[in-house]
Amino acid sequence: PEGTFAFPDSGPVMSTLQDHGVRMVVVSDIHYDIREHFRRHDLDRYVHDYVLSFEHGCQKPDAEMFTCALDALDMSADRALMIGDTPANDGGAASVGIATYILPGPFRSGYRAKRGLDAVLRLVGI
Predict the structure, then answer these.
(1) Of 32, 63, 95, 108, which is least packed with CB atoms within 10 Å of its CB?
(2) The whole model's pTM is what?
């Protein structure tokens, strides 16, 4: 976690989403508990829940990862939006009916420019 960083547009976009009543779940298949990353960068206050592969015994693109996220939100797939950066893994959300937006990347270590997350605000009509 000490080596991780947040993209500079993460906080502002997540804050705006929360201000508009949008709940967020982090779906991750990284090999460690990513919650610390969000706490370290003060982003955990925007996250409703976490679906982490090591806790569920499956990993993206397995549909179970995404249905667990929907369950955490008590939401149907047609009301959700998945934002990811790895088509092969994050595209699994589309297999359960979740609209899916794939950002450029992942980037090499050290990349710290804005990620283009403002597109998410436009996608949800903010």
Answers:
(1) 108
(2) 0.89
Per-residue pLDDT reduced to its tens digit, 85-119: 889 999 999 999 999 999 887 666 666 667 789 99
Read off φ and ψ for residue 49, nearest 5 degrees.
-160, 170
For residues 113 and 8, the answer to whether their CB atoms sit within 8 Å is: yes
Cα-based torsion angle of the residue sequence 23, 13, 83, 42 in order, rounded to the nearest 10 degrees: -70
Helix (H/G/I), strand (E/B), else coil: 85: coil
- Closest C-alpha to 60, from 115, 102, 108: 102
What is the C-alpha separation between 52 and 71, in angstroms, rounded?
Answer: 14
Q: How many whole angstroms separate alpha carbon 124 and alpha carbon 122?
A: 5
Is-contact 55 28, C-beta < 8 A? no
